[in-house]
Amino acid sequence: MPDIRHAPEAPTVTRVLAPGESIDAHRHDEHQIVYAGSGVLAVTTDAGTWFAPGTQAIWVPAGCVHAHRAHGQLALHLLGLPPDTNPLCLDAPTVLDVNPLLRELILAYTRGPQDNSPERLRLRAVLLDQLRASPQQPLQLPAPADSRLAAVCDLLYGNPADPRTLAALGTEVGAGGRTLSRLFRDELGMTFPQWRTRLRLYHALRMLADDLPVTAVAHRCGWSSTSAFIDVFRRAFGHTPGTHHRGTL
Description:
Distance between the termini: 33 Å
Number of helices: 9
Number of strands: 10
C-alpha cells in the first residue's frame, strides 16, 4: 500500500462513507476500534483483509498500516485508545463481536464531546469492560505469499461462485492439488473449503450491503441453494441474511 499516511492520533469520531468509498493506507500511534453502524466495513493490511457487518467491530493495533473500504452506505465510528490501553492484549487486527450494549456505548462515545469529564470517563470504563468480554471472530481473508496460491485466490475473488475443485484450479495456475492444499494450510491457516466459504461470506456481505436480493446473493456466491446459504450465514453471523438485508440488526 503506497503513500502511507501517518496520523499521530487515532480519532474518536463518526464519519459517513459512500458505497465504495475508501480511506487510504495510514497508521496511528494509538489503538483504534473501527465500527460500522451500517453497511459493511473492510480493513486491509499487507497481511490480508478483515471484514465486519454491524454486529462486529475491528480492532486495529497502534502502528498497524491499514486502509478502510465501505460496502454499502457506511456509518463509520472510530474510537482511539492510548497505546497502553489494550483490553484484549491484541497485537494484530481482530474482528470482535458487538452486543447491543457495546454498540450503544460505541455510538455514545464517538458522538459525545471530546473531553475528560467524569461522565465520559465512566462511559469509557464501561466500554472497555464490554470490550474485554467481546468474543473474537475469524472474519479475515489472509494474504497469500506464494504466487501459485495467490493466482488461485485471485480466480475465486473474481468469481466466488466458481465450482471447480482445487485440483482443477491448480491446472490453470500450474500447481498440483496437493501442493495447493498444503499451501492453504501453511500460509493461510485453513483448508481450501474453509477459505472458500469465508471468501463467499465476504462477497455475500458486500452484495447484501448493495441491496441485492438474498436469492441472487446465494446464486452469485456459489451456494447450491438459498437455504444452504441462509444456514451458513446464520452460523457465521448469528442472524439470517434477510435480517441483515433489511437492516434490522
